[in-house]
């Protein structure tokens, strides 16, 4: 067929070029000293389980460096870790994630450093960042990968607890590895709610603003948390508790490694156990605690009224209006009246 004699061919070819734009990837699981990540580029774990790159949450106009399940595993983009939670960028194409001075570092559109692994620099190290199939982003000495990681994202979780990661206390550096909720579905900055290990007992606590405790899991009895009876039905997770001179923590693994599951400290103040359902292409909520939103401390904010039998749960008493109508319609009620 002569393209010159068919005026429909060329526009059709141009349309295909744009509509079938390929996914841009670095083609590896590693960011090395001579590579960087910008725009729509991503790195993908070796087994194509997790992907790392720039993303834009919800209706936000900001971009963040984050990690999500690879699209063949979970069709709905589900963010499990965020690097620059409090310092977004506005232009992902002119921003850059790269190795700099022995660290993994993010530079914004003005080439200003806005996030880093913040390690003491060492020019003698051949540093590289590797994304594992477990969802752990590891900074390591590329000349000797068998050494302990220089830094790992498992030590700095956002709102999600993945299998194999620890949530607990380091007794050496007094660091508390906790889950902290997003501010809202559109903003991954640290929110009001956190899940952390009780420093005195083998139980978890949920705090409001890291100061007011409003929920406890009850102590661990070797199989379940005493105040989470739903765990008796749990055929998905294998929990274990470790306490020694160096650290105390809980971790878990999957009885069936093909099952995709996670724990989330939700922006509504509940800790949730979720499992991906391939048949419905959605996350299935196995259990959540506290059981109702109205049990979450200050869920409706100052002067707000909470009713677990209504939708939405929060309402304004007569004579009051929300402090932020926009937040209210986005189901962020913590601003109150």
In short:
With 337 residues, this protein is mainly beta. It has helices spanning 9-19, 325-329; strands spanning 30-31, 36-37, 42-44, 50-55, 64-69, 79-82, 96-100, 103-107, 113-116, 127-131, 137-141, 151-152, 160-161, 167-170, 175-177, 179-184, 187-197, 204-208, 212-216, 237-243, 247-254, 261-265, 271-277, 282-289, 305-306, 314-315. It folds into two domains: 1-156, Bulb-type lectin domain (Agglutinin, subunit A, Orthogonal Prism); 157-268, no CATH class.
Shape: globular
State the CATH architecture of the largest domain. Orthogonal Prism
Mean pLDDT equals 88
What's the number of helices? 2
Helix content: under 10%
Strand percentage, roughly? 35-45%
Cα-based radius of gyration, to the nearest Å: 23 Å
CATH classification class of the largest domain: Mainly Beta
Note the run of SSEs as H and E.
HEEEEEEEEEEEEEEEEEEEEEEEEEEH
CATH topology of the largest domain: Agglutinin, subunit A
Task: State the fourth-level CATH superfamily of the largest domain.
Answer: Bulb-type lectin domain
Strand-pairing-aware structural class: mainly beta
Number of domains: 2
Question: What is the CA–CA distance across the termini?
Answer: 69 Å
Mind summarizing the main beta sheet? 4 strands, antiparallel
Oligomer: single chain
Pfam families: B_lectin, S_locus_glycop
Signal peptide: 1-27
Keywords: Disulfide bond, Glycoprotein, Signal
Organism: Populus deltoides (Eastern poplar)
């Amino acid at each position: 067929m002569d393209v010159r004699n068919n005026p429909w061919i060329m526009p059709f070819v141009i349309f295909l070029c744009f509509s079938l734009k390929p996914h841009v990837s670095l083609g590896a699981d590693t960011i090395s000293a001579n590579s960087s990540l910008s725009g729509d580029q991503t790195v993908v774990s070796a087994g194509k389980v997790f992907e790392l790159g720039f993303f834009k949450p919800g209706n936000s106009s900001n971009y963040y460096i984050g990690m999500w399940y690879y699209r063949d595993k979970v069709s709905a983009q589900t963010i499990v870790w965020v690097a620059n939670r409090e310092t977004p960028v506005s232009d992902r194409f002119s921003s850059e994630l790269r190795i700099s001075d022995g660290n993994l570092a993010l530079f914004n559109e003005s080439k200003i450093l806005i996030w880093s692994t913040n390690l003491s620099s060492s020019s003698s190290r051949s540093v590289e960042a590797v994304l594992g199939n477990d969802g752990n982003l590891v900074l390591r000495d590329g000349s000797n990968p068998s050494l302990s990681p220089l830094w790992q994202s498992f030590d700095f979780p956002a709102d999600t607890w993945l299998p194999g990661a620890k949530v607990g206390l380091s007794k050496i550096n007094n660091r508390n590895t906790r889950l902290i909720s997003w501010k809202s579905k559109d903003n991954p900055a640290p929110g009001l709610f956190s899940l952390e290990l009780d420093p005195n007992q083998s139980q978890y606590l949920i705090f409001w603003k890291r100061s007011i405790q409003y929920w406890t899991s009850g102590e661990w009895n070797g199989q379940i948390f005493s105040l989470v009876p739903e765990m008796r039905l749990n055929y998905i997770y294998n929990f274990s508790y470790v306490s020694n001179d160096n650290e105390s923590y809980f971790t878990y693994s999957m009885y069936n490694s093909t099952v995709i599951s996670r724990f989330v400290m939700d922006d509504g103040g509940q800790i949730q156990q979720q499992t991906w359902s391939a048949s419905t292409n959605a996350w299935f909520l196995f259990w959540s605690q506290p059981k109702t939103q109205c049990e979450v401390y200050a869920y409706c904010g100052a002067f707000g009224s909470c009713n677990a039998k209504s939708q939405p749960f929060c309402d304004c008493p007569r004579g009051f209006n929300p402090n932020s109508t926009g937040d209210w319609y986005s189901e962020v009620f913590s601003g109150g009246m």
